[in-house]
Amino acid sequence: MQPHETLPYTELPDYSDDERIARAKAFYEAIRTRRTCRYFSDEPVPRAVIEHALLAAGTAPNGANHQPWHFAVIESPDKKAALREAAEQEEREFYEKKASDEWLEALDPLGTDADKPFLETAPYLIVIFGQRKGGMFPGEKKQNYYVNESVGIATGMLITALHDAGLATLTHTPNPMKFLNQICDRPSDEKPMMVLVVGKPAADATIPKHATFKKPLDQIASWL
Ligand code: IYR
Hints:
Elements: H1 17-31, H2 47-57, E1 69-74, H3 77-98, H4 101-107, H5 118-121, E2 124-131, E3 133-134, E4 142-143, H6 147-164, E5 168-172, H7 179-184, E6 190-199, H8 217-220
Helix pairs in contact: 2-6
The structure holds 3-iodo-tyrosine.
């Protein structure tokens, strides 16, 4: 057992209540403009933006601080083309055969289909893997904990950081997505969880009206 060493926690600013309210409101105003974008510009985005957004994601709360995630950043056109090819193959199966009528009906207002040109247009595809085994240090093979929760939180922070930097994202979930291990050269005990498409929106990008409806506070929260 390692000793439980501690440090004073003094980094959090002690705002006044008024400042806290103003900041919470300002953050909501900023984040409420986030949209899932399906039309990307091919304009390049500096790598430093992605690096710092990934560093932000890497600060997410997680199981035992094992940080059970890996972000494979694809910028090579060949890799993007390979990923698109494989994803569209799975998506065609999904839309034409596997998806239930109820599922397809739920997707109708979003206008999604098996065509995923953005997988080649956008400057970056970040493939997010959860690590079932790992631990804190390279080479360790310890059990990891709460992998889905940890990766979900980190991905949320990544999306938030990218939005804050003025970039659009799309969470793409090909189904199944095991092919991502091979494309990204990741070991088979890592679980591919999402492809995050990142870039500037195309000049003529649109969003589905359906996506702009957000549940009001009294429907998403209760006070006890
Ligand atoms: N994976 C498919 C289908 C899809 C499913 C849900 I639920 C969405 O919110 C959006 C799409 C695709 O990426 O098209």
